[in-house]
Amino acid sequence: MVRIFMAPVYNELGQKIPVNEQRRFFMELDKFQATLKLGQNTITRESTESSVTSKASPSFEKLVAGEADYDSDDSYCYCGWPQYFLVPRGN
């Protein structure tokens, strides 16, 4: 299981936060199954595969204006972060 987290490195005073304290601020961005080999690995993953995002729901303004259809599929709940909120790729 691969789990991706984000956490601050510095506090509000610009002081480095010790790793043991950083863990209290960790936010899970994604988790997925992957086979890893010893050493360096490169993982490529589409944002639509994320376990913590959902497709964007249409805005109220677009629904009222008739510019978007409401998906009345009760099996989809629009739970999670919208996909456009994902953090860009980094290193």
Automatic annotation (TrEMBL):
Coiled coil: none annotated. Gene3D superfamilies: Hemocyanin, C-terminal domain. Transmembrane segments: none annotated. InterPro entries: Hemocyanin/hexamerin, Hemocyanin_C, Hemocyanin_C_sf, Ig_E-set. It holds the Pfam family Hemocyanin_C. Residues 1-91 form the Hemocyanin C-terminal domain. This is Hemocyanin F chain.
